[in-house]
Write a structure and sequence with these properties.
Layout: H1 7-11, E1 13-14, H2 17-27, E2 38-44, E3 47-53, E4 62-67, E5 70-75, E6 97-103, E7 107-115, E8 118-125, H3 141-156
Parallel strand pairs: 1-6
Antiparallel strand pairs: 2-3, 3-8, 4-5, 5-6, 7-8
């Protein structure tokens, strides 16, 4: 039997969490993050936060770009020379990266902050008023007939 791994789609989308949660539960899929590691959290009914671990990167080495339904986070590490000697072991990743996230319709970036080596990107889904569901009042047959009769009587008078 063949199985399909939807992990790459799940890891790079925001706003489709209900669909992917159902697919994950059905398939029992567990995702393994790539560099840099990140979390996607739901902070409200229509609010999300992406947190990337970007230890060693400064504000001037990171860029965030939002276009159409995509969020692109880039990190470009400047080459530093050792001040006090040679480095014997380098375990802290300092490589450049580019991470792309697909955003659902009407999801917008509200802000970003860098603190303690974590880049927080806040997102909000703002659905336009024209696309929000509306309640339509149901008028009974008797009430509608009275309205028509009243209108005809007023026109005749």
């Amino acid at each position: 039997m063949r199985t399909f791994d939807l992990t790459p789609l799940y890891r790079s989308t925001v706003g489709f969490d209900r669909l992917f949660s159902l697919l994950d539960q059905a398939a029992g899929v567990d995702s393994a993050p790539a560099y840099p590691p990140y979390n996607i959290e739901r902070t409200g009914e229509n609010a999300y936060r992406i947190t990337l671990a970007v230890a060693g990167f400064g504000q001037n080495e990171l860029s965030i770009e939002s276009r159409q339904n995509a969020l692109i986070v880039k990190g470009e590490k400047k080459v530093e020379e050792s001040r006090d000697g040679e480095v014997l072991y380098r375990g802290i990743a300092g490589r450049s990266f580019e991470r792309r996230f697909q955003l659902a319709d009407h999801v917008e970036v509200k802000g970003a902050s860098l603190e303690n080596g974590l880049l927080h990107i806040d997102l909000v889904r703002e659905i336009p008023e024209a696309m929000k569901p509306r309640q339509i009042a149901i008028v009974g047959a008797n009430a509608n007939a009275k309205t028509i009769e009243n209108t005809i009587e007023q026109q005749a008078a």
